[in-house]
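[READ THE FOLD]
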Amino acid sequence: MKKPQIKWMLLPLLVAGITLGSCEKEDAGDEISADAEVFTTASLEQADESDWITEEIAFLGDEIMGQDEISASGKGIADSGYFPECVTITTVVTDTSVEKTIDFGMGCELPNGNVLTGMILMTLSKDAEAATRTGTLELAGFTFNGIAVAGEASLFRQRMNENGVPQSDFEAAFSAEWPDGATASWTGNRTREWIEGFGSGFWADNVFLITGSRTFINRQGHTFERTVLESLRREWSCRFIVSGLLQLSRDGQQAELNFGDGSCDGFGTLTLPNGTEEEIRLRRARR
């Protein structure tokens, strides 16, 4: 089955890059290093926040599709408890598709502390028992912790990949406006292997391995390309990426961010273009 295509995906084949897990020092206004002015803490901080937004949206899409799969098969517990009572989910079944509206109203706090407003509109292929399933997703009046986010995504989901676990390919084009008027946009893809916790009935034991690439354009119009070199491990009970390696590129310079040994400690090691290594505190440690 082919993955669904959306018009924005046909833009000069989205330059590879990913915003997974950027970072900041004690003073967000400082440069990471005088030898690497292209990698400012302000830019990395904003990129990290954009990735956090994408992680949440991708997880919500996975959660909805996973619930359908488990309900259809009867294997496992469909409701993981992640959607609180302030979320309204409406389902309309047509001859060819399933339409889902996830409505967060004027403000709904999820179990991980993120506060969302507005709606996510999903259109899914009808057969929840098929080996693969496709879908599209559109944001409507959506905000994430006060950041207004717009855009679309496509999903291609395998009930079981070659490693015997659920896998989702998520291609997205989002833009955002921060409360202070700053704006940014990002496009790209990610593959998420759901390696632990699927169907357990408890959202906090979910663990994902993430690969992919993304292009991020910050508030100054600078373009950053980010690519996963070693799979990033996201344990949903922790707000950080706990291990993996990310490459960051801009203006012909490259840096690498190592997320560590699996500890949920909020720190990583940044290797700058000149080879200098710095321990940095990940932005989410402050939330």
Q: What stands out?
A: The chain has a mean pLDDT of 83.
